């Protein structure tokens, strides 16, 4: 099966390359905003939008008026226009809100360029990009497949990244004849029907504490600047702290992503059928007391990774009904013991006297219910 995969690497542009990246981002934004303005006017007057091709020929004219547009990667400017046309199409289909003007102050600044005639390529430990030439790349894994495009990003902490989108042929994985149920837990991140538990990433908890502390410091710095009548943009201490917080966020995100990638790949490799609960209900349940934004994001990211990997490698994901009382049933004899409050971590079945760990029992019920619904469908 042909699938699209994205690779993200950090890049280390030289000073000149950094300047050119900044210029390209600026020009892409300029093109986007300029045509968005036109597009909005036309929409207000006629109820219709413009077309990509009419804007594209206008862009050629625009370059004669603003010659500095010629200094940067022309495909990036075309992509910016394409991006605008696509978001307008989605807007007309009521799939998203109307596109908004891009700001210099957006957290992440980026531009996208398309592959044509090998203008984007990996050359040893460098990446070749249009206009920039070879940029040093922290290549943590091999890029496999046909490169479709590349997005160059500058994040708030001042680091540069490239995301390379490729098209590649993936082969289904060997069948294992094994199925597993997963209970996305509260005390543990995930509990498996084979009895093992994945703890709620201790590293995230640690990082979170640190993050909160640094964030408080950031608020203090903002207040100090305000009291002194300094604009935040010029407040050095504030800006320094802001970069520190951004770096921490990034580290948490990366660690989480690595963790979830490894975990989901392992599960997909080892099992043919993966049974899970509907996430929405759980998310809502948790939101009151236990909501930790980080683990919530992790859950949905984890499930989506499992879903696309299952599709790639020929495995099956079964989501069970949100009303299924996974923690109330005895997985041994099927007796339904009734609701149990969250602090009850283990219990004994009144009928068969089997002693249960709450979450392992739940995941075993999820597995049984998943297998049952799968064979019914
Ligand atoms: Zn029982």
UniProtKB/TrEMBL annotation:
GO BP annotations, alphabetical order: DNA recombination; transposition
Sorted alphabetically, which InterPro entries does this protein's record hold?
Cas12f1-like_TNB (IPR010095), RNA-guided_DNA_endo/Transpos (IPR051399), RNA-guided_endonuclease_TnpB (IPR053522), Transposase (IPR001959), Transposase_put_HTH (IPR021027)
The Probable transposase IS891/IS1136/IS1341 domain, residue ranges: 164-287
In this record, what's one Pfam family?
Cas12f1-like_TNB
Domain Transposase putative helix-turn-helix as annotated: residue spans: 1-48
Entry keyword set? Coiled coil, DNA recombination, DNA-binding, Metal-binding, Transposition, Zinc
**What residue ranges carry the coiled-coil annotation?**
208-258
Segments forming domain Cas12f1-like TNB:
299-366
Q: What are this entry's molecular-function GO terms?
A: DNA binding; metal ion binding
| Entry's family note | In the N-terminal section; belongs to the transposase 2 family.
Matching NCBIfam families, A to Z?
A: guided_TnpB, IS200/IS605 family accessory protein TnpB-like domain, IS200_TnpB
Could you identify this protein by its name? Answer: Transposase
**What species is given as this protein's source?**
Alkalihalobacillus alcalophilus ATCC 27647 = CGMCC 1.3604
Q: What is the lineage of its organism?
A: Bacteria, Bacillati, Bacillota, Bacilli, Bacillales
């Amino acid at each position: 099966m042909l699938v699209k995969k994205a690779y993200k690497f950090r890049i280390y542009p030289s000073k000149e390359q950094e300047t050119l990246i900044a210029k390209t981002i600026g020009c892409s934004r300029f093109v986007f905003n300029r045509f968005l303005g036109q597009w909005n006017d036309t929409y207000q007057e006629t109820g219709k939008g413009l077309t990509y091709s009419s804007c594209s020929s206008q862009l050629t004219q625009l370059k004669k008026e603003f010659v500095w547009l010629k200094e940067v990667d022309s495909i990036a400017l075309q992509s910016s226009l394409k991006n605008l046309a696509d978001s307008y199409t989605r807007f007309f289909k009521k799939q998203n809100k109307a596109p908004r003007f891009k700001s210099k102050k957006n957290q992440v600044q980026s531009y996208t360029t398309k592959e044509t005639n090998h203008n984007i390529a990996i050359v040893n430990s460098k990446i070749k990009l249009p206009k920039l030439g070879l940029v040093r790349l922290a290549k943590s894994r091999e890029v496999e497949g046909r490169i479709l495009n590349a997005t160059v990003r500058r994040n708030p902490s001042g680091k540069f990244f490239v995301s390379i989108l490729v098209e590649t042929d993936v082969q289904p994985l060997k069948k294992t004849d094994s199925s597993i149920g997963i209970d996305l837990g509260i005390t543990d991140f995930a509990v498996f029907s084979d009895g093992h538990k994945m703890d709620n990433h201790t590293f995230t908890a640690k990082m979170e504490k640190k993050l909160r502390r640094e964030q408080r410091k950031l608020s203090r710095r903002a207040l100090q600047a305000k009291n002194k009548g300094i604009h935040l943009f010029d407040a050095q201490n504030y800006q320094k702290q802001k970069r520190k917080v951004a770096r921490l966020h990034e580290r948490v995100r990366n660690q989480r992503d690595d963790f979830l990638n490894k975990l989901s790949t392992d599960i997909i490799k080892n099992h043919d059928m993966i049974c899970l609960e509907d996430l929405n209900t759980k998310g809502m349940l948790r939101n009151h007391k236990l909501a930790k934004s980080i683990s919530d994001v992790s859950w949905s990211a984890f499930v989506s990774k499992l879903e696309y990997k299952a599709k790639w490698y020929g495995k099956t994901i079964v989501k069970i009904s949100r009303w299924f009382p996974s923690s109330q049933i005895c997985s041994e004899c099927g007796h339904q013991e009734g609701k149990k409050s969250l602090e009850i971590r283990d219990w004994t079945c009144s009928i068969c006297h089997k002693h249960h760990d709450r979450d392992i029992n739940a995941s075993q019920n999820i597995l049984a219910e998943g297998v049952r619904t799968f064979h019914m469908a």
